Amino acid sequence: LRPCKISLLLQSYVLLCVDLSYKIPSNTVFLFLFSPGSSSLGADFCLHGFQHVYGLPQHTDRLRLRDTSDGEPYRLYNLDVFAADLYCRLGLYGSVPLIVAHKPDRTVGVFWLNGHTPTVSGKASYVLYGKMRRLRPQTDAQTDVHWLSESGVIDCTILLGPAPRQLFRQYAELTGYQAMPPLFSLGYHQCRWNYNDEADVKAVDAGFDRHEIPYDVIWLDIEHTDGKRYFTWDPALFPKPAALQQHLEKKKRKMVVISDPHIKVDPDWPLYREARDGGHFVKDREGQIFRGTCWPGDSSYLDFSCPETRAWYSRCYSFDKYKGSTVSLFVWNDMNEPSVFNGPEQTMPKDAVHHGGWEHRELHNLYGFYQHMATADGLMSRSGGSERPFVLTRSFFAGSQRLGAIWTGDNVATWEYLKISLPMVLTLSLTGIAFCGADVGGFVKDPGPELLVRWYQAGALQPFFRGHSANDTKRREPWLFGEEVTAAIRTAIQQRYCLLPFWYTLFHFAHTSGLPPVRPLWVEFPRDESTFTEDNQYMIGGALLACPVTEPGAQTVKVLLPGSDEVKIWYDISSAKMYKGGKSLSLPVNLDTVPVFQRGGSVVCRSTGSGTCTADYQKLPLDVTVALNSQASADGELYLDDGHSFQYRDKKAFSLRRFSMASGRLSASEEGRFDCDTVVQSVSIMGVKSKPTTVNVHVPGEDVPEMSTFNSYRGKSF
Ligand SMILES: *[C@@H]1O[C@H](CO)[C@@H](O)[C@H](O)[C@H]1NC(C)=O
Fold first, then answer.
1. What domain count does the chain have?
2. Which of 16, 422, 601, 629 makes a 20 to 30 Å CA pair with 477?
3. What is the pLDDT of residue 67?
């Protein structure tokens, strides 16, 4: 069952019916392709037997896509929408034209590779060529999907699964695997519009140390520049940017600065002149350099669709060109939908002209993708190709996972926005964009202390973990709300850092197999229909079930512990208490509770102890937590490498350990060659039936087994 590819350039009108039933007798996928006119094209897919479809980021919506017969179709048009309405089908900052459909015995995907304003509607009953189709009886479930694009070619791939894991790999083979992030970027990021000056940055940095809260990166928004000219520094506020970065680097911390695609129209600025004279700007329909308004006022926009422009832009990040940049400076591409304050729908007019004479309408959804690509290339090149880049982008398209991280954009400090961040991150993960997260605390408006704590707890369980706030909000560094709040936030962030070996291992698998680190429950429990609409909770890897609290004043939370197929066992990771799967649980919570459960049959590695940043945690010893299933067995992996270079790829300098517990014996096999000092300090086993009499440790190649101590035995676990 390989993906089958159908690629057609349509001249006029084609009706095609492809019956794939010879390959998949019980699950036919019919494909109709047609072009209703010379300037738009569409396709209809009848997904037989499927009632649950997902995908199509980015919308502020639930995980499962809705029947759109009652209203607007889902629109995929990258736009800068400030504080977007919730549950809205209009386009947001980025798009991935992939639909994933799931039923108990099969997962399929439809990937519509077209960068031109597609709209997608999925309907239970629906109009085909103006005629109403007969509604099918309830027992014969079906989802009809209609793609419509303004222009371009039909380049459509059907991913046949049949299981979620296979679908992720098929999609990654088409669009690329998640880039392996540098380890620091999985730590906590502290951002604000703006940290005002060098003293402010140093004070916030010191605040984290004073309050013993680990963090890795401090971010600077647009005000760090000299008059919104990217690649420059405000001479009064940031006179010594390199020294500032070295100050942070001494503590193994990094800095990220913003770099947007609009360039201030300023003939006195060499970078503007270089871009203008090199022909690097998008043109208007008359062939003049396009001008629009953005942060600097009158601006022109780099044409990242042009390979020469991308190469020129990448070179702007070299250490000799980018004055004040050092090895510990990384980048954030914002406003790259592109945002044009005075443009139609606050973006570029569709008739603006790109390299090769292409109209903007043809490339619109790819604009941010190409900037992200050029920035990541720039950071890669400045190290001679040896260091992994880190670039965050707001706008994205299918394949952006190869380039770095994305966040969900300008959210609001309300409980509803916290709640919606979960399905938004899950939808991105399903469509390949695995390194993603929502701004902690909400960008717009001021969160109350309880919301802030709950958001840190939820954000610590998302792949990209950054606190951010707008320029007109009150300061909200974690220690500004009293000791109880500081302590709860400290715990949430510390727990994230302790879990980094697990997250990093999950990113290794995203990088090599396409499996996203966070997954809707149904990905892990594909036959359990009770999981198909669940988006308040999700899996981190195959081992942990996360159910962050997203309600104000919560006394209890309802947790669905899946397990209808076989008897599944779950363990509350904070108490090691055992629960049977296949039912819902009402869990009492207080402000410190973050409900996370480990699946019986899994092994999770954590750092033990504390530190100030990922580099500190990398040196800490590990605890291996084994959660036994009903057969008293468990499996899991640990991936380690240097955390920043490409030696894992070029020199196989990594270590992949596979832990396996069976018949009372835990063993570890190793793949790769990576010398590191990481030691396993403790093994915790949950689900042991009786107190063991002896524990033996055997280390291959060593005559004398290391002494082991037997610390505690608590209830049915120790
Ligand atoms: C925030 O920035 C915007 C855009 O530069 C500006 O108009 C506004 O006055 C700023 N607000 C504050 C409180 O600084």
1. 3
2. 422
3. 85
